[in-house]
Every structure is written in structure tokens, then in C-alpha cells.
Amino acid sequence: METLIFLLLFGWSDEICIAQDTIEISYPIAVPYKSDSILCIWREEFSWDGIRIKGSFFDCSTWLLPKQLSPDFLSDLAGWNGRPGLTVDSSNNIWIAWYYGEHPCKQKTIEPTWGIYTRTYDGTEWGAPAFAETSMTSELTMCTAKDGRVLIGWEEDTHIDTWGYNSLRIGWYEDTCWSRLWGIQAYGVTGSGCGETYSYGLGDLTTDTSNSVFISYIEHYSYWTPDTIITAGTVIIKEFKEDTVIEIDRITGLWQYNWNPVIDVDSENRLWLVWVVIDEDGITNLNSYCYQGYVLKAITTDSFADLEPSIVCHNNGVPWVTWTSKRDYSIWTAYYIGENWHSERVSKEDSSYNSNPYIIEGPQGKLWVFWQKSKGDTNSICCSWREQVGIKENVTPKPQSIKLEVSPNPFTQRTIISYSLNKHCKDYTMNNSRLTIYDISGRLIQTFYLTNDQSQVTWNTNKLPGGIYFLHLNIGNIKKVKKLILIK
Fold this sequence. Notes:
Oligomer: single chain
Radius of gyration: 23 Å
Number of domains: 2
Largest sheet: 5 strands, antiparallel
Helix content: under 10%
Number of helices: 1
CATH architecture of the largest domain: 6 Propeller
Strand content: over 45%
Low-confidence stretches: 1-8, 75-79, 389-395, 423-430
Mean pLDDT: 79
């Protein structure tokens, strides 16, 4: 069904400076608050003296003076690798989060203390910071589920001898403490000049109206022998629905570096994914998918996309993405309408260094972009906004869907997998098309390579144990996933 929305006619406003200093201020993140306000927070770095979190409210028409939100002069390891976390819960309380680590060289401790600080604002005053100890923490992200739970995802780093591992965790705040919802542990093995490692990079968290929680992350894989090195970066999307974890997709590129997968859900409950692709020649671009059977084009093709994209789906259904162009370190946005991405420059043309943009939908439906700016010895947190007015356009991507059926399902020994393409996909060839089956832990079980004269395959489970499996059908850029239940 076609969806009609209002296309934007006016451009981005002039740059607005929220904060400025000679110290390094970086990684802004913002959230709309109530009907007419926005909170933007960022990090201030004092070299070896530490890092602290500051923020400013936009009150109707003016940005207020920045306020310090974290304790004084945290360790320099606090929030070292990325943005703080920020969300608003169902009771209109603001939540912020940042990492903390006591540096052993400064604090004279044998083992540093790592953890996550959170702090809330009830509309009148800020509560006292609360601390939860973790392993060495780097990236984190926050969101609020539709049932009111405040969720936080974080990345833990573990070092054993000279090896470094990354693990991912998701937790929610309940009864005055953080409970762990899900986790995945990386690993590595080595010996006799050979080695194999997995590590993980956190991407994003988001929720939909049915109370599902989605996480995006990167699985980095390396295998080497004295004669061979193989590397791959896989974008993985998982859904948490009640007590079930479903792997929606995994996008693997051999000799390809995938990075920073960001996600959001639009007003029609469609999940949008944007991520950075760096190939073996160093060419960098932004790619995108919209699930529920739609296939999208690359957002950028000039090979200068930054590693820090951000995405928001406006309440009219239009997704917006922002990034930094490394061609001149300027800030850009793109919106998807009429089956194409349309790009617009946000930052002004000067000799400044702009980076780490973040985009939100603010009060009255305005789009806001926040970023850090450096010019000479001056560092700033800047923003720009634009209105929504104008003419109607069709924003629903053309469906290029696959009909995928499994019968019987559930089954006890074997099942028949059937598939067909609709009329929009009739020109697709079956080159490199495949059916892949994974178990519930994500381990590859079997692959079927498809040909033009095929319309079904039979999967014989042989000695596989009973349980839940996931079927992935890939034809061209079109993807389909179905859950299989094997009963034994």
C-alpha cells in the first residue's frame, strides 16, 4: 500500500553553537523531552585529568548554559570509546549513562575498577549517580521499551595474556538494579603458528510497538596460518521477543570490513539498518536495508563516508541518516523517498573539522543534527534543524518480496522448503543465491546453493537434535528469514 507524507522543502538552519572550549568536547547525543524541549549531552576530555559529562537543555527557543552532569574529573578511561547513553522513560524521566574506570597508573591500584554510571532527571532535579560494576567497558547504548523498561547495551573487553576479547551484554533496570537480559562471549584459539578469533562490536538498540527489542552488532572473524589470512566482518541483527531470541539477519563480507550498524523502527514497524562497508581497497560507503521484504540502495557512493552514521525514522515514516564526509569533513544527511536516498549538506563550507553527528526528531516534528566541530584551538558542539512542510510524495519502497514456505513446520525428520519471487523480482538471476540454516546459537548448519530451475529443496535433519533453527533465503539483495522447529 502506498504511503503519503509531506516532503521537506526548506533547507537546514545556520549552525547553532551549544558549547565551546579549548579542551576537547566530543560525542554529542540528544533526546527530545516533553513537548518543547531537547537535552543534548557530550563528553569533555581533560587529557590525564579525566573525562566528565556535560549537557544543555533547549527550552522552547534557546539553548541554556551547559551544566555538569557527572562527578568531577573521572578517570580518563571513563567513556573513552564513544558516546554516553541517553533515553527518556515512559514516565518522562531522563536517563543518562557513561562508563567509569580507575586507571591503574594514576590510582595506584593493582586491578582497575570498571563500571557504568547512570543518573536520572525527573523534570525538576537530577538524582544522585548510581554505579554498577562490570568488566572493562567500552561502547554503550540505551533505549526505552514500549513496556517502560529502560534498556542498556554495552561492550565488555577482556584481556588474557596478550589476547583481547569483546563480549556484548543487554540489561534493563528493574527494582533498583540492572538485570541482564542477554549476553554473547567472544573467543580465540591459537597454536603452532595458526589462530582463530571472534570479537564483537556493539552497534545500536531500538524497540518497536509490539515491545520487541532489536540489537545490531558486528562479529569480527580472523583465521590465520603461516601461509593464509582470512578476515570477515558480519553485521548481525537480533530480536528479543518475550523469552525468545531470533536472529533476523547476518550480512557477511569476506575481506570486507563492516562497521557501526545503526537501526531504528519506523511508524509502520519496519526495521531500518544502516552500516559502513570498507572493502580491501579501503573504499568506504554507507549501505542500508529495510526489512519486511524491501531492498534499498547504497546511501553514499563517493567512498568518503565516515565510521559514525546515525539514523532516525520520523513519525511520518521517512528515515533520515547523518554522517561525516571525509572528503572535507563536513556533515551530511540523507532521507529515503521515492525509492532513492536524497542527500543534503548540513554543516557550512569552511575549513573546520566536523565529526560524530547524531540525528533526532525534535519537538513539532523538526529534524535536529548535533555534531562536534574543531577549528584551530577551538572545539564546539554544534547543531542545525529543519522544518517539515510541503508536497506529498510516495515513500514506501517498491516491494521486492520472496514467498517462502516450509511444510511441515514443526517437523520430526525432514521438511520441504519452497520459494518463489513476485513480479518485481522477475529479472533476478539465481547467481550466488542460497538457503542457509543456522541453529539458535547462530552456528551454520547447512547451505543450499540455488539454481534457476529450482523452486524447492528438501532438508533432511539426519542426526541433528530437536530445537529451533533459522532459515535464511538470499536471492540477489533480497532476504527472507523463517523460524524452523524440529521435534525429536
